[in-house]
Amino acid sequence: MYDFLNDYNQTVHPNLLKEFVDINNKKLSGYGLDECCDDAINSIKKLLKSPNADIHFMAGGTITNLTTISHILKPYQAVIAAETGHINVHETGAIEATGHKVVTVKTEDGKLTPELIKPVLDYHCDEHMVQPKLVYISNTTELGTLYTKQELKKLYQFCQKHHLYLYLDGARLAMALAAKDNDITFPDLAKYTDAFYIGGTKVGAFAGEALIFNNLSINHDFRFNMKQKGAILAKSWIIAVQFKALMENNLYISLGKHSNDMAEKLKNLFENEGLTFAAKPQSNQLFVNFPNQLAKKIISLYALDNLGQTDPSHICLRFCTSWATQEVEIENFAKQLKALLRK
Ligand SMILES: Cc1ncc(COP(=O)(O)O)c(C=O)c1O
What we know:
Bound molecules: pyridoxal-5'-phosphate
Strand content: 15-25%
Shape: globular
CATH topology of the largest domain: Aspartate Aminotransferase, domain 2
Distance between the termini: 20 Å
């Protein structure tokens, strides 16, 4: 059975595995304060062209989001997110469990804009309501769509004007930066967000994310909050060495590009068969509308996310490719799909 269920279904890229072997005989002090962490931090700073960035290695996306958001906000403050945003739908109320409301906004394409945020600010007008203070976005979005540089810049400028912080969840940042339609660079992320993270778990790492604070007025005592939330790993270096390898020789972007290229092959296949998409295909996640019977046959053969009916006669299935997806998997799926369509 081939698997397009997610982008973290294989353990670790060989270059990263080699890093584990190389450091295996080293004694390290740990807790994010050793030479391996320093090396990786310096590689990331170079890439961001941001020598003052404050960088922390985290185990996964949810712990990064909840530790960062809970650190930035005061007890009565809230975070604004797209209704489809990961913190709203897939993190078990982790943000709310830290005491902060997630105020959601309906979007067509998973992206937030100043026009969508402004009514939230107008509505939350006094101390009888929570105070929206942080805008959460992800790139790529939960629907696989991308922000352009102009959109990100406009959002950041809007946040600045309204005294909001902008935080970008980069679980799939490699796929965003490697996408054909992308014009955002690493230095742009340092310039146009207050904080963001570079996702590793979905980009060949065994696990791990690199959190970056660009705004150094919001990271005071962050390690205390990290420790209290259980987010400081004694062996942080196991995340750091992977990031060092990911940042070398453009590996990070090339793994994102491979994920996107595999998805594009699937996209062409679906288009040639006359199928439509529930969200614009721009990266490694495709949301495909299948006639009900065909969808049922496909999910009996493949591990896939089933997003339910898009209309009474269509079911939307998510196809997710990864750094490890092989062309032969796409070719075999194409044969299978063609056979099902001709039955
Ligand atoms: C955009 C985004 N943020 C955060 C996460 C959460 O990551 P984890 O499952 O590692 O906590 C995911 C995982 O699917 C994600 O897609």
